[in-house]
Amino acid sequence: MTFPSVRTGAPPAVAPPAVELQSVAKRYGSGETAVRALDGVSIAFPPGTWTAVMGPSGSGKSTLLHCAAGLDRVTEGRVVLAGRDITHASERVLTDLRRRALGFVFQNFNLVGALTAEQNVALPPRLAGVRVGRQQVRAALEDVGLGDRGRHRPRELSGGQQQRVAIARAMVTRPAVLFADEPTGALDSRSARTVLGLMRRMVDGAGQCVVMVTHDPVAAAAADAVVFLRDGRLVDRLAGASAREVADRLATLEG
User: Fold this and answer.
1) Cα 109 to Cα 141: distance, rounded to the nearest angstrom
2) What range does the domain containing 238 cover?
3) I need a surface site. Which of 8, 163, 174, 212 has the fewest CB within 10 A?
4) DSSP code, position 155
5) pTM surpassing 0.90?
C-alpha cells in the first residue's frame, strides 16, 4: 500500500524526498521461523514535513525507522536517503551519510554524565571527525532554549532539559533528516510540549524532515500526518488529525 507524500509549507515540486522507501521488506531469521517485520512498505518523506509512525506492538515501527536511517539492511526493496540509494551502500558510505545528513533522538537521552551540555552536543561530531565550533554548539543550545545551561551536567538538568540537549546534539550539524524514536516517552506533559514545539520549529523554520515513532496520540497529533502500521504493512494515514482521532484509529488496530 503506497501513501501520498506528506507535504506542508509547499516545498518545491522538484525537491526529491528526504527519505523514500520503495517496496521495502525486512525479514529476520529464515525458514519457518522467519519473522517478516516489514512487508512491502512504500512511502516518501519530503523535506519540510513531520510524520509520526504508529501501530500496535510488533507492527514494524522501529524496524521502519532503522531501515529508513540505514541502521538496518532491508531484505527486499530500495531505500533512498538524502538523494542517495543506500540499499547496498557500504558501511563507510552509510557512516558518512549519518555524519552529514542525519540526526537521531531517542527516548533515553543517552547523554554522558561526566560531560557538560556543551560537551555532550559537541561529542558525536567530534568522534566522527566533523569540525563543530564552540559558537555552533552554543547556537544549537540557544535554539532549544538552553543557552544558559551549557556548563551544566545532565544530573543538574531536568528530564525535559536533557532531551532538549539531546535534540541540540542531533541538530548541531543541521542534518536534512531527524529520526526520533519515542522522543517524549520519558517526559512529563509540559516537557513533552516543549520538545514537540522544538520539532515543529525545525520543520517549519528550517525545512527539515522529521520521522517520529511514537505510541502517544498527543505527540502524533503534533505532526503533519500520522501513518499506521500493522503486521509490517502500512494500513492507514491521517493528516491534521486530533489526538482523539489518532487514539481512536490506533485502538481499532490494536483491537
Assistant:
1) 15
2) 19-111+176-254
3) 174
4) G
5) no
226's enclosing H/E stretch is: strand 225-230
Quick check: helix, strand or coil at residue 10?
Answer: coil
Is 85 part of any domain?
Answer: yes
pLDDT for 81-140, tens place per residue?
988 999 999 998 888 888 788 999 988 889 999 999 999 999 988 887 778 899 999 999
Query: Which of these, 29, 32, 126, 45, lies nearest to 79 by C-alpha position?
Result: 45
Q: Into how many domains does the chain fold?
A: 1
Q: Rg (Cα) of the chain, in Å, rounded?
A: 18
d(CA 198, CA 122): 19
Q: Which three cell numbers stand for residue 126?
A: 567530534
CA distance 30 to 203: 40
* Contact yes or no for 178/186 (Cβ under 8 A): no
In angstroms, the CA 40 to CA 1 distance is 8
